């Protein structure tokens, strides 16, 4: 494992961390304001605007969920570095072109195409999972998640400021350029110790699942990824519209919406390192259980808030809890799955992430369109409670089989 501690290992880690940071930043620089961008492209009713916003968010993840297993199988044959380059290269093109959109359907189409080739952060995480000693897995998985989260924190603030000053198209052009830089740095500065596996020599997933001590746990981690992602995505498409309502359509709505969108990222960023070390000490499952229950509790006051600033405060606390969710899920997968199946398992995980994004964005836009924005928070909180019960149930199964 000496090579893992070499300068090359650190260079790869820092390059992928920065790439994941820029990917997260680029996403959050553009996505919280897509609903406001769409609103400028036509004269839409309240329901139409919510529906188109949900479709623009969900389009990426429909295609992502459909093609992720194909990319995962390819990653196990060709390596994760190539997958990172594929994702960042296509994102550079599609995000830039989105900024040129003249109709809502062009935005939705570009988002669909982007999803079919997406997966930089997941592939970067899978690449580091294969390059990292198990004793450091919790910290490295948290650090890689922190990269995207840190980007999600900076992105809305930068996107809000740029949108307010120059219009909603500029953040798309800037993000496209940054993703081109990610493509080049990943190509030139990362090293992957990867032995290609011939397609004929790859173990079938059924055989790999049969060798895992507790396959139910892996499936519940996929479900957890789906529900946690849905809980984020049910809120993201409507956050700027909800802030607009809370501010009674007065003031710098884009900037305040950017702050409200960014606060969970700040909380996660603050807590991530501590949570990562805690996972290495007491195990990721216990951390996940506490995180899910805390997140459920925090959605209760968010349902009853009447101010964008109190909403920002509760979302900041939610960010602290979120630091225990996706990293813990990915660490369980890293520790329980054979290395040769990382690409496929992480791609299945990405498919569930995609399904969660679709369900969440549809849930958020339909509930807010038919009922109210606070109802989205109430129902989202309940899904996290259900997730906690599932994790508790699979823990009981695990302890009874030991």
UniProtKB/TrEMBL annotation:
It is a multi-pass membrane protein. The chain crosses the membrane at residues 12-38, 50-75, 87-108, 170-191, 212-233, 253-275, 287-306, 312-333, 345-367, 373-394. It comes from the Bacteria. GO terms for cellular component: plasma membrane. GO terms for molecular function: transmembrane transporter activity. PANTHER family: MULTIDRUG RESISTANCE PROTEIN MDTG. It comes from Limosilactobacillus frumenti DSM 13145. SUPFAM superfamilies: MFS general substrate transporter. InterPro entries: MFS, MFS_4, MFS_dom, MFS_trans_sf. It is found in: Cell membrane. Keywords: Cell membrane, Membrane, Transmembrane, Transmembrane helix, Transport. Residues 12-399 form the Major facilitator superfamily (MFS) profile domain. This is Major facilitator transporter.
